[in-house]
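Q: A small favour: would you put together sequence and structure tokens for a protein?
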Amino acid sequence: MPSIFKPTGKSKYEIHYSDHDGRRRKKVLTPDRAISERLAAKLLERVAAIRGGLWTEQDENYADHGRRPIRDHIADYVEHLRSKGSSKHHVSRSKFGIERVCDLAKVKTPGDLSLSRVEAALAEISKSKVASTVNLEIRIFKSFVHWLIEDRRIRDNPLLGLKARREVIKPRLRRRWTDEEVQRLLLATEQGTPTPNGFTALDRAMLYKLALSTGLRASELRSLTPESFRLDESYPVVQVKAIATKNRQEASQPLPSSLVSLLRLWLATKPSGQRVFTRMDVRQSEMLQRDLEQAGVKYQTEAGQLDFHSLRHEYISRLVQSGASVKTAQTLARHASPTIMVSIYAKASVYDLHGAVEKLPDLNIATSDQRRATGTDDATPGATREIPDGPNILPIK
């Protein structure tokens, strides 16, 4: 049996041994002889177990991964997300969430992962975050653990039984934009100043115009490059890659002719291959709120608020208001169901409702006694009133 020794000039003990395949190996142990002897004994026992078929190479692989720091595994997972094309925001948010849970749960290696530790970490997060944020942390961490299992870094799932928190869903009430509010926002933004992070006034104004004219979501607008715009085609469009869309399908949104000439001049100043809204961050509603304040438009009223996603709501509402069919509006909105579009996005203004009621058939047909009672009987006494041809409308009784 090989013995441990401390090489000349070294502070730690070592052991040289033959592994289960007969290859010569060296293992650096600790400065303490007693501890090093115990580690060497376990090492040699494992080699003997593998040779005897009591310990497999996969068991050895699990053991090796179990000894690695959890931060190494997180770094490997981040590279995995990047390699499969995840967005920069998703990668950074996942890294932040996993590291936060591991730090709070005091997880140093995969062997430290346990349901009780993770639950304690989530309870700490719950003190300052709402249930939806905690549930996001749960989904992110579960994805990480699932990857550890798939990559054969851990044998079993330590998070079995981990359940999402109950969320009290408070629907966000958004209101319609008026034409005056849109014009005031665009004018004030174009004449404004850059944001603290350098997002210019002209770029922000173009961002709002594109959102109102295409219905693109914030993440989709953030992904656009000059090559996304097809302005020279018979029907100009802006294309969004599948990786940036909500349904992970490439989108091709028509552009109104009134916007094409403005886009052509604006895009001429943008370098090819780079995002056109380079300074757009994830706090776009806060940016819009500042621009609304400069424009003298209220962000929040009793009717609802005007956050960034309300620009998409307005786009869909105006499509319906313009007389577009349900199918056309649904296609442009890129909704799987027309129910979502009509019930949530396509809001009707008071003018729309009144206009719709005014188009109902005239039911002002009454009997002679009713007309005399209301003082509206201007017909000749004894005259017979003819009912015009048309729908079978019964008199009001």
User: Anything to note?
Assistant: The chain has three domains: 14-55, 70-150, 179-333. Residues 70-150 form one domain. The mean pLDDT is 84. Residues 131-150 form the longest helix (20 residues).
